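Sample A.
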Amino acid sequence: MTAPHTPSLPDNASLFTRLSVARQCLEVLKNDPANPTCGQLLNICLDLGVYASLVQQLQSGEEGRRLLSERPSLQGKELDLAALERLPEGTLGHEFARYFRDNKISPFETTLELKNDIDFIGKRYRETHDLLHVLTGYATDVMGEMELQAYALGNLGIRTAAFILLFSSLEHLRAPQSGVGRSEYLRRIQAAYRRGHASPQFLGFPFEHHWETPVATLSARLCAPAQRMN
């Protein structure tokens, strides 16, 4: 039985229905960001076609085919954060572990069963969210989260990111928060989108093999330079 107030998606749902359910999911996620049902359902509503296209792109290259074949995991149960934090300061592993400690959060976990490559790509996108914070330098406050969504939209065309941006931006423009005015908010969102669009596609990168690589090296390789904001 469906839990009270938990959105559900009927079979062969229309675009209007999928958008409506996606909005309900966002309302739940505002108060329960770790809700696994709504997190997965939001992606299903908006990004199946995008993920299918990304799978095709990855299948065209040797590294991408290897990723799809091996399906590596960055879930919390696969990560030894204590070991990663013992790596030299400045390395991806050390800074990734410190990111979780400093922000008092835990790595991503999901109950999603991987039935195909599209499911894996959806999971991979969510798993790399925190790594992108480390590589791009975007903060974990409201502004930084929206910048990261804009970056992902520019880089991958993720519709969930566009929906989150629209939903959150309308709220921010009605009542600015986090000490960021309307014009600055829009400038930073636009800059993050352009940066993501100018950067190499990150989803197929084998982060698991680069824990000992300096963050600065990976950022230079995977991220276009951040625009200086006056």
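Sample B.
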Amino acid sequence: MLWTIISVLIIFWLIGFALDLIGGLIHIILIVAAVLFIMRVIKGRRSAAR
């Protein structure tokens, strides 16, 4: 489920970046996707260590 959200956010970012929608705010979507990805990786490593 989280991978789906990350993928959708990145797709929205690419579309917004290509079409120059909402100016600089479109980069917030990329930041949110990156944060979710990092949280997923860290959480996955903790689960594997147990």
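B remarks: The first helix runs from residue 2 to 19. Helices lie at 2-19, 26-49.
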